[in-house]
Hints:
Layout: H1 2-8, H2 12-37, H3 55-64, H4 67-85, H5 89-110, H6 113-132, H7 134-141, H8 159-183
Helix pairs in contact: 2-4, 2-6, 2-8, 4-5, 4-8, 5-6
Amino acid sequence: MEKLISRLKQSKILQIFTISLRYLLGSSFVHASIFKILGIRFTLKSGEGAPINTLAHFFEAMYQSGIYWYFIGWGQLIAGFLLMSQIFSTLGAIAFFPIMLNIFIITIKFENTNILIITSLILLANIYLLLWDWNKLKFIVLPKPDNYSDNNAEFLQRKVWIYLGVLFFLITVLIRIFKIKNSS
């Protein structure tokens, strides 16, 4: 498996796909985190009166918890930034995984097919990113891993991807804050 991943990492198309995927997943978390950090509901109206076994009630309970709502928001913001940074993208993919797995399990419970498809694809994309960085992660997973070798191509290691990631992060935060302020 390691040799296959190493060979695939030399493809410029897959390198661009991976960089873009990091930006996309990271920005989705950053976008979703801002309203939580600002203490705003996920949905437009309160789910307080909704039946107890509904998604609306679940979101309302998380929102009403206060500190947990902020904690989720900050966790998503940090994981999103790490992914978008490209330098810390492996750590971002690791941080992203339990959050996304949790969201995926929640969508299974509430049986919303459209959201389940989206969360499934996001979770698969996250798994792809973890496999992409297998050469770094094998030391955590395997009892006796082989030597570490950084098999990222020079194209993937260009600093422009870091600068773009930080720029996209800032743009995502500013757009989200601007939308929230204008909708109030």
